[in-house]
Amino acid sequence: MSECGQDQELLFTFTQAFIASVLIPFQSAFRKRLSHMQLRVMLALCDKGPSTMTELADALAVPRQQATQIVDRLHEMGMVERVREESDRRVVRICWSAEGHRYFDPICARFYEDMSARVRALPPGEAQAFLQAVQTLAELLPRMGAGREDAAQ
Q1: CB contact at 8 A, 45 and 82
Q2: What is the pTM for the complete model shown?
Q3: What is the rounded CA–CA span in Å between residue 51 and residue 55?
Q4: 5-23 pLDDT per residue, tens
Q5: With the CA atoms of 35, 41, 43 and 44 taken in that order, what torsion angle do they form, in degrees rounded to the nearest 10?
Q6: Which of 40, 63, 67, 99 has the fewest CB atoms within 10 Å around its CB?
C-alpha cells in the first residue's frame, strides 16, 4: 500500500473510532433536548464565551440568518439569553442562561468524568501517549480547519 493510502486508512480508522468512542456518546447525552446545531451553538458559546450573532455564525460556518434561527429556538427553550453591552447598547451578545448551565453542566461533568475514567483504565504508558496525542490534535486541528469550512461539503 502506498504512503498516501496508508495515511487515508489511518485517518479513516481514527475518524470512525473517534465518532464511535467520543462524538456519539457526547451528542447522545444531549439528544433528548437539543438538535445537532443547537448543541454546536451551546458548545461555541462555552468555548468563546458571550458572542454576537455574527461571531456565532462565523464560528459555526453558517449564514447569520441560520444562526439567528437556532439562537431564537434556544432562547425560547431558556438555554440562552440576549444581553446588551453596556458600552454600546446596539451590540447584543448571546450567552448561556442559568437554565443552560443547569442543563449542560451536569451532563458535561458526567461525560468528562467518564472519559477520564476511560483514560485512567489504560496502562500508564498508554494513558500518557493518549493524552499527548489529544494535546497534539487540540493544537493542530484548529489550524488544519482554518479556511476549510466547506471543504467536506
Answers
A1: no
A2: 0.71
A3: 6
A4: 788 888 888 888 888 888 8
A5: 160
A6: 63
